[in-house]
Amino acid sequence: MESPTSTASRPDFYDFLDRMRRPAAADLFRSIKSFLVSFSFHAPNAEEDGCKVQAFFTEMESAIRDHPLWANATNQEIDHALEGLEKYVMTKLFDRTFGTSTEDAVTDMEISEKIGLLQQFVKPHHLDIPKILHNEASWLLAVKELQKVNSFKAPREKLLCIMSCCQVINNLLLNISMSNDRTLSGADEFLPILIYITIKANPPQLHSNLKFVQLFRRETKLISEVEYYLTNLISAKMFIIDVNASSLSMEGSEFQKHMESARLATQVSVASPSSSQGPPTSARANQEEIDMVLDSLSWIQKLKA
């Protein structure tokens, strides 16, 4: 299973930067720089920005395929270059494109607060998860993978965190199916576990992260298994937003009682001192390294200009 911090996920990026440092890449770098600068000319608009970025990726794919630096390159090598391009562009544009609207910030806060309440009383049986599917070790691993999603700037790396989480759940279901000669029922068993994992994880800025991946991950990559997992996490988010007594197989009065108790407990905990939790150290260090490399590349190209 590929991790966003693993070396396997990074060679395409550093190979792309290495080629961009070469004098022969000056024309490509100018195109990229011009595109990045153009974003400062207008106010942020997530959907419009997404369309612009996707169009630029398509345009640059043609330019890279025709470029001497990628002469006789295989489709995989071209794809690696495009992965490097996406990471470079979206890391540079991150502050301009991620969670920029007030609405997104409000939605993120509301979801996080809602999950904070649900965490205090929702159990697997409330989501009709059969006991045979309970596996605390696997669930904890899935939780930790999902919690990493806010630690990265590139859409692909955020998506890898989502994929890792979902693959842990999928592997759990497959193992249980094989060891118990049990037929799986697809999303009917996968989605409830993912909802429970999402509640346990309460990943920061869940709405903004999902929106960012949808808008800025190359469209040709949001297919098949990737699309299935992403769609399921979006469904989990919507379930949490709309959650009520009936969706948790619970009496209305019981649900309200639990929610009120959770709100009171939250108010008490907020009044007491607590330590804030930052992103995983390895993820943060990896992102700082990438930011330094990007700044270095910009400086080198300025000297060549």
Concise overview:
This protein is an all-alpha fold and 305 residues long. Helix content is 69%, strand content 0%.
CATH class of the largest domain: Mainly Alpha
- The CATH level-2 architecture of the largest domain is identified as Up-down Bundle
How many individual domains? 2
Strand content: under 5%
Please name the fourth-level CATH homologous superfamily of the largest domain.
Answer: VPS9 domain
Helix content: 55-70%
H and E string: HHHHHHHHHHHHH
Assign the structural class, choosing from mainly alpha, mainly beta, alpha/beta, alpha+beta, or little secondary structure: mainly alpha
Q: Helical element count?
A: 13
Region (Disordered): 268-287
GO molecular function, one term: guanyl-nucleotide exchange factor activity
Protein name: VPS9 domain-containing protein
Domain VPS9: 105-249
How are the SSEs placed, and which strands pair?
Layout: H1 11-20, H2 26-38, H3 46-65, H4 75-92, H5 94-97, H6 102-118, H7 136-147, H8 155-180, H9 187-201, H10 206-216, H11 224-242, H12 252-271, H13 281-304
